[in-house]
Each structure stands twice: as C-alpha cells, then as structure tokens.
Amino acid sequence: MLDWKTVTLGSVVTFQRGFDLPHGSRKSGSVPIVSSAGVTDYHNTSMVAPPGVVTGRYGTIGEIFFIREPFWPLNTTLYVRDFHGNDPEFIYHLLHRFDFDSFSGKSGVPGVNRNDLHAESITLPVDSKEQRVIAAALNDVDALLAGLNQLVSKKRDVKQAAMKQLLTGQTRLSGFSDVWKEITLFDLAARKKELFDDGDWIEAEHITSDGVRLIQTGNIGIGSYVEKEVKKYVYEKSFNSLRCKPLMTGDLLICRLADPAGRACVLPKIESDRIITSVDVTIFRPPRDTTNRVYLSYVFSMPEWFRAVSDRCGGTTHKRISRGALGKLSIKIPSLAEQTAIAIVLSDIDTEIAALEARRNKTRAIKQAMMQELLTGKTRLVTTGETNA
Asked: Which of 12, 121, 176, 250 is most buried, taking the most CB atoms under 10 A from its CB?
C-alpha cells in the first residue's frame, strides 16, 4: 500500500464561493439550491456539476453536504470547484474532521475565508483507491444511520398519531366504552393545596455543589425527565430554613415557565436522599385511585394543552402561567383502567423509540471511532486486488 502524505488543503481541493440568487430571481425547477443549511429551495438552472461538496461560509458554519446532482450553491457557501484527482466522497468525510467554526473571522472578517482553509495542513492517502475504500466504509455507516433516523422518525409519527387518537377519545381501546369526564386540575387534586403546590423559592445563595438535590425547570422535558450533566444542590441549612417540600418518586412535575410552559414529567427514581424543586414548578399529586400520572404526562404533551396554557400565560420578559390559572384548566379523562391501558400503549412506543435512539447513538459513536482511525491512517484498509500476504 502506498504511503500517506501531508500537504496543504489547497493542494487537495479548491474551494470556491457560491453564487447569488435572490428569491425574486428563482424560477420553478428541480435543481437544488444549497445554502449553508443544506438544500433549502429549487431552481430551473444549475451552476455546478456533480459530485459536489458544500459547506457554509456564513450562517450555519460547520455543516458539510454531499450533492449528487447538478446544483446551485448560494453565495453563503463554499463549494469544492476542483478535487485535484482525489475521491470526492473521501474529501466529504475528511472535511468533517475540520473545526470550521475556528476559521470564522480568522482573517478579521466574519465568515469562513477559503484562503485560510487552503493553507491548512492535512494528511491523506496518496492512492485514490484507498481513499475510495475508506469512503465506502464510512458511507456504509452513514447508510445505517440514515435508516435508523428514518425508523426513529416513523416511530415518533406513530406515537403522535396514537396520542391524538387515544388521548382525545377518538379511538377507544378494546373493552372500554365509559363516558369521559371533564375536570379541572385542582379538582383532580381534590382541591387540596398539598396535592397541587409549587416548589420552593430557591435563590443563587442557596445553591451549592452538594447537599439536597434541586430539580430545575431544565430537568423537565415534554413528557420526560431530562437529567443534566451538571447537577444542582442546595445547602442543608437552606433546606431547613426555607422549610422546603421534599419530592417523591412518581410526583408529576409541571413547569409553569416557558418554553413551553405546561410541559410535564413524572419524577423517576433518582439517587438522592432528598430532592426539591423550584418555585416555577408545580408539584401535582392527584390521588392514584382515580388518576394515572403517566397518562397525565402524555396529556400534558399535547399541542392542545400547550395552546391552553399559552393563552393563560402572563409576563413580558419571562412568560409563565400562575399556579391558580393552571389549576383552573380542565381536561377530559376516562376511567382509571382506561388511563392505565392508554399509558401502557404509549409507554411501549416510547420504549421502542428509546431503543432505536440508543442504537443510533451507538452507531454514531462507532462512526466517530472509525473516522479517527481511517481518516488519520492509524488503521489501513486493504484496497481491491491487495492481499495480506
């Protein structure tokens, strides 16, 4: 196998700035218009023949796109005008190792300057056959990732359709026919403040790196709990002096602060002896003999719910809904048995989505490791016609 060489990027590819095309000058057609964010429109005339490699010069910097058909790169992009005999797909993968953000404004002018890129040193295989073999291996992983992305997207669509049908009563699960009842959140909490209360007024001076765990608004996702890498705590003395309200596993937490206000999650088991939350979070503990809290977390993930909450939000700089206004919102719910059955169906779909996402994340990690090995020459692939003899 031939050796690798270290040269300037400008001797491997020649970047060229794209071409201006105002919206008023665009005509209906099938030619993709490529901006710094990828294909964003179409035109009836192309400026560059395929294959093409395009990256952002302004706007979205760092994204790289491989184009397989005639296209029009906008002037917010840089495209490869000349590959100098190198494999275009290999170049596409190689450029992913560049930190394009570091080039923005390097010459004192905002944006990526192609002359700065051309001056960078890179190492690549001399043999174009080896370049193609490397590109093919990485393309296979990309194809797998694309397939997983499609599966995740389809499964999310299935979930959204199921939520729309099951959480509104448009479709009933087998064996259920009872009439749904309309009830306010505060009534669901038996009109008891201890079952529908806000978190504690925690300020900066109360926060520390160890002590009583603090669940913040950022931990509350749409229908799911979001663990953060950096965890927050409050001092023991603050917990006592503020008479904080400890949370319990299974509490339904509703964030009253945008964005979006009204998002909710069921608190999972967390490895902390004591847990509290902030004042912008309502702790909702509807009785378990009438309500399934996982079911409610799905109800609080519906577009109709967010619209209802948004209509009652106040504030100028920080939109929020008061606990009183939140408690007056009404929802329609079926019997506890039907709530539980619906929650099981939707939770099963979430489990499938999580498994697909975990598989996708693992595949991404594998690709990153492959890029580190293959695009640096640490691992060499045997090209066609070669043997290990």
From this structure: 12
Residue 39 clears pLDDT 90, i.e. is over it: yes
Angle at 312 between CA 307 and CA 317, to 5 degrees: 100
Q: What DSSP assignment string belongs to 214-264?
A: EE-GGGB-SSSB---SS-EEE-HHHHHHTT-----TT-EEEE-BSSSTT-E
Q: Is the peptide bond before 246 cis (omega within 30 degrees of 0)?
A: no
For the chain, the average pLDDT equals 93
State residue 244 phi and psi, 5-degree precision: -65, 155
Tell me the C-alpha distance between 140 and 143, whole Å: 5
Tokens of 317: 């700089």
Report the distance separating Cα 190 and Cα 218, nearest Å. Answer: 28
pLDDT of residue 388: 45
Domains of the chain listed by start with CATH number: 4-126 (3.90.220.20), 181-333 (3.90.220.20)
Determine the pLDDT at residue 108.
58
Which residue in this structure is represented by tokens 């806000």? 198
Beta-ladder partners of 168: none
Predicted TM-score (pTM) of the model is 0.84
d(CA 187, CA 185): 5
